[in-house]
Amino acid sequence: MRWNSFAELRHGLVIVQERSRLLQMGKDVVPVKIRGILPANSGWAIFLGTEEKVFVIQVEHSIGAVIGMFLRDTEKERPLTHDLMADIFSGFGIVVERVIITELRNSTYFARMILQQQNELGRKVLEVDARPSDCIAMATAQKKPMFVSAALFDEVEDMSEVLQQINDANGETDDD
């Protein structure tokens, strides 16, 4: 392929680097979806996982309700915090590319939100430390992929059977 300018060459290199990074990332992370969301004593239980394994992240009551609203595409009278963040991002040409729940330390989950900005100056990727609940809310609101580090996914307790028992008791089926 022939490059007409330095900017095109740089853009081509960025694409190649991104593809390489995504291939490597596939070995290091597991794509997950929300498999269930239930009110709990101290907030909400978010069941994340694959068809083979599910784990739980406890989130505050208000953020659990927000995630539920985003899952159901509920109309809101006024923008919520995550809507506001998305509007600000959009104003600056920033998109949430994906979120990754990275580790569990002292009973606290950690996550990263991967943001991308594309403009006339080029492409910039920024990785931001964030609460998993905020990452899940942003990914759900914007229909972006969620991942868990492979090491963490191996470490967490499988709660598939618990989720299945809850769904059976409520007469629900897993549509995914």
Short description:
This protein has 176 residues and is α+β, with helices and mostly antiparallel strands.
Describe this structure as you would to a colleague.
This protein has one domain (30-170): Bifunctional nuclease domain. Helix 2 (61-71) packs parallel to helix 4 (132-142). Mean pLDDT is 85; it is low at 12-24. The chain is of the alpha+beta class. It contains six helices and seven strands. The longest helix has 23 residues, at 6-28. The chain has a seven-stranded mixed β-sheet, with helices on both faces. Strand 1 (29-40) and strand 2 form a beta hairpin.
Topology:
Layout: H1 6-28, E1 29-40, E2 43-49, E3 54-59, H2 61-71, H3 81-91, E4 94-105, E5 108-119, E6 122-130, H4 132-142, E7 146-149, H5 150-155, H6 160-170
Parallel strand pairs: 4-7
Antiparallel strand pairs: 1-2, 1-7, 2-3, 4-5, 5-6
Helix pairs in contact: 2-4
Shape: globular
Helix content: 40-55%
The CATH superfamily title: Bifunctional nuclease domain
How many domains make up the 3D coordinates?
A: 1
Order of helices and strands: HEEEHHEEEHEHH
